[in-house]
Amino acid sequence: MDPALKRQILLEHYQNPSHHGLVENRDYIKINTNNESCIDNLDIMYKIEDGKIADIRFDGEACAISTSATSIMIDTFLGKTLEEASEILENYENMLNEKEYDEKLLGDLKLYCDISKQPNRKKCAYLPFESFKKVLESQRRNG
Q1: Is the whole model's pTM more than 0.85, yes or no?
Q2: Domains along the chain?
């Protein structure tokens, strides 16, 4: 992906993030995730209906990488089944860890493909996905 395009996508999702703002609704699973080494502290809410991700909302304070990664994750996950989102998560983890991954599944998330060159930023790019892993765990327990 062209570096200028990467920067443009990242800035767009940082300045105008998708689904920003929380809702008061008991149908959502709310997860807090934070990065001890910087300001990142996000509340992310997931609405799961019939095994699909119906909505995701978020709010909090975070750097450009965490905010954009959260916004892009939301755009990527909405409407997907938990299994489909899990497959995307697995490929995203592989990409961040410089393992083999299916680029086609990631969409705009592939803009973080070089983040491993900046290990301190890797946690920022992964932060919203930590919350999704917790949602998966809760769904398996309550499932």
Answers
A1: yes
A2: 3-142 (3.90.1010.10)
